[in-house]
């Protein structure tokens, strides 16, 4: 065996599925950053590399935070680049590669199969390639329907070519839960528009529940599947409860503030839209910076929970939140197991859930601290600069949940703060545990020591 073959085998052993998954996103971000950094991507002054990197990371990680005005600062070419980035980022470059190789009749590597299955499926399936093809097909069909519906509305405000591009851009962005929009005020101008609101909300929900849930629902509706899996039931039930409770709380907290004076139909639309969009979408139909503190807290919690596993969104995921509540409830009843819908949840899944939640909370606190530490407050006194804590916490959780909502501080961040948010978006998209596991080599023996009890609680 020659040196080259030895090197290839060594690299292959080191490139675990987790590392390949992470490197694919990192490579896409760097490619996108260099493309957006070029003069042809901007409509005026050339973007700084930090802004190009921030924009690319936000698109690939389907976050939607923007340090520039996408509709004004980027040229048509630059806008198309971001469109491609959040489309590829939403589904994953590995997914496209697997489908392409499959259609070409080429074999799919074990690592590629493992990456795609972990991204879309809760349990391994022999027909996973059929599922992945169904995911791609369903994605393009839903995005096409969303584009048509938005085009019908936007054609009343723009020339046909411009209306189509606005419709396509917002539809793809909404389904991939990105939140990038060509409008400077997001969708505030369409606050009371039923077509725009219902279309965007529908796209966000469909993109956020997870591809395997979409696949099971379609199979159930067509009679191919007798019943939904426990995973799909928990996702749909938790998502419905979060959307409804979020809308109710938003309405009661804002009825005498930002909703005051609106017709009741517009109040309902705004309440449900602002309840759905923190589920990793990033669009908004009201000024987030003017919301009450109570509402900000609710939105931070919704952003931290995020979307569902196997979707384009981030956060700790709806299933993790549901399992945490179930663990607390079962422990209060004195049960050592977590039972739900006549099923018992494996202990390994419960341990992973706890690790995900606490790792996520830790990294959110760490990045928020970095933003505060590098904040240039000028001559402001501590009491007058207190608002930075809430704004930076909101920004950090938004980045972690790959949401894209902001209280207006994103363009004001300095380069160090922007880089911290880039890392936060990246960690939120690939997952904090996946990022941590990628540092450790597989196959190491686990040493087990003697047990000794300690006091807790």
Task: Describe the protein in words.
- By secondary structure, the protein is mainly alpha-helical.
- The chain has a domain at 16-121: Helix Hairpins (Orthogonal Bundle).
- It has 19 helices and two strands.
- It has helices at residues 3-14, 17-37, 49-60, 70-73, 76-91, 93-103, 110-120, 128-154, 160-175, 194-208, 211-221, 230-254, 264-276, 293-305, 318-332, 347-373, 387-400, 415-430, 432-437; strands spanning 339-340, 343-344.
- α12 crosses α15.
- The longest helix is centred in the N-terminal third of the chain and has 27 residues, at 128-154.
- The radius of gyration is 22 Å and the shape is globular.
- The N and C termini lie far apart (58 Å).
- The model has no long low-confidence stretch (mean pLDDT 84).
Identify the quaternary structure here.
single chain
Strand order of the largest sheet: 1-2
**What do we call the CATH topology of one domain?**
Helix Hairpins
Termini separation: 58 Å
Number of strands: 2
Instruction: Kindly estimate the percentage of residues that lie in beta strands according to DSSP.
Output: under 5%
Question: Which structural class do the helices and strands define?
Answer: mainly alpha
SSE pattern, N- to C-terminal: HHHHHHHHHHHHHHHEEHHHH
Q: Characterize the overall form.
A: globular
Main pleated sheet? 2 strands, antiparallel
């Amino acid at each position: 065996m020659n040196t080259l073959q030895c090197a290839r085998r060594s690299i292959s052993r080191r490139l675990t599925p987790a590392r390949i998954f992470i490197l694919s996103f990192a490579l896409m971000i760097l490619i996108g950053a260099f493309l957006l950094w070029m003069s042809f991507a901007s409509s005026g002054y050339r973007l700084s590399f930090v802004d190009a990197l921030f924009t690319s990371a936000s698109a690939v990680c389907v976050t939607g935070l923007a340090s520039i005005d996408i509709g004004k600062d980027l040229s048509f070419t630059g806008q198309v680049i971001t469109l491609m980035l959040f489309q590829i980022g939403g589904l994953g470059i590995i997914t496209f590669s697997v489908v392409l190789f499959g259609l070409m009749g080429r074999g799919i590597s074990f690592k590629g199969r493992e990456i795609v299955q972990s991204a879309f499926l809760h349990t391994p399936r022999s027909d996973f390639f059929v599922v992945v093809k169904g995911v791609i097909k369903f994605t393009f069909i839903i995005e096409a329907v969303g584009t048509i519906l938005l085009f019908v509305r936007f054609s009343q405000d723009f020339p046909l070519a411009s209306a189509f591009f606005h419709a396509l851009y917002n539809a793809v962005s909404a389904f991939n839960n990105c939140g990038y929009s060509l409008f400077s005020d997001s969708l505030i101008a369409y606050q009371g528009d039923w077509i725009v609101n219902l279309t965007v909300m529908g796209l966000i929900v469909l993109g956020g529940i997870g591809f395997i849930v979409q696949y099971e629902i379609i199979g159930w509706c067509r009679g191919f599947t007798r019943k939904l899996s426990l995973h799909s039931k928990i996702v749909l039930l938790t998502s419905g409860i979060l959307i409804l409770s979020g809308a109710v709380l938003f309405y009661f907290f804002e009825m005498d503030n930002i909703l005051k004076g609106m017709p009741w139909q517009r109040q309902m639309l705004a309440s449900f839209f602002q309840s759905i969009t923190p589920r990793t979408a990033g669009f908004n139909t009201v000024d987030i910076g003017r919301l009450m503190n109570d509402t900000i807290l609710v939105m931070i919690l919704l952003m931290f929970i995020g979307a569902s596993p196997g979707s384009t969104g981030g956060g700790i995921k709806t299933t993790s939140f549901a399992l945490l509540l179930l663990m607390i409830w079962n422990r209060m009843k004195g049960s050592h197991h977590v039972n739900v819908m006549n099923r018992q949840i494996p202990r390994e899944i419960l341990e992973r859930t706890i690790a995900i939640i606490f790792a996520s909370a830790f990294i959110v606190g760490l990045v928020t601290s970095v933003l505060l530490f590098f904040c240039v407050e000028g001559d402001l006194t501590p009491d007058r600069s207190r608002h930075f804590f809430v704004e930076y916490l909101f920004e950090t959780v938004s980045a972690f949940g790959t949401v894209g909502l902001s209280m207006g501080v994103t363009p004001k961040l300095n380069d160090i703060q922007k880089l911290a948010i880039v890392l936060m978006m990246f960690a939120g998209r690939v997952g904090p545990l996946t990022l941590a596991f990628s540092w450790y080599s597989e196959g190491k023996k686990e040493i087990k020591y003697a047990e000794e009890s300690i006091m807790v609680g």
